[in-house]
Input
Amino acid sequence: MVVASLALILVAIVLVVIGLASSSGGVLMSSIAVSLLAAAALFAGVRQTAASRRMARASRPATPVRDRPGGGHDLSPGVKARLAALPDAVAVTDAPLSFHLPNCARLPPGGFRLIPVATAAAAGIRPCHSCDPAAALLASLPRS
Ligand SMILES: [Zn+2]
Output
């Protein structure tokens, strides 16, 4: 579309030159018409390009959960709600900010603090992907 409008602009320029050279009013008028067409085509082309760029952005897959920094994955609202009812404590590390089972092998010695799992989940802290404390704690619940 942009290429077509550029071609129309070229045609308009040629018509202007011919119109001026032959001092023909009809050719000048048609050159104005062609340049208006070119403007419309350019406008449509730019809009189309912007729209397809938007589409490409929308269809691009989101960053895979696994590749995000911070280790674990986000908790779903349902999991957060279930964790909020648990009395268990989890170990929170600052770098990366994540929470673990207190016996997780990835915990740095002394480099964590114990807080209720409900607090960690409500604060949006991600669970460790190694010990997966959210799944482990929820799995330890008696089935109702
Ligand atoms: Zn862990």
Remarks:
- The chain has two domains: 2-59, 69-139.
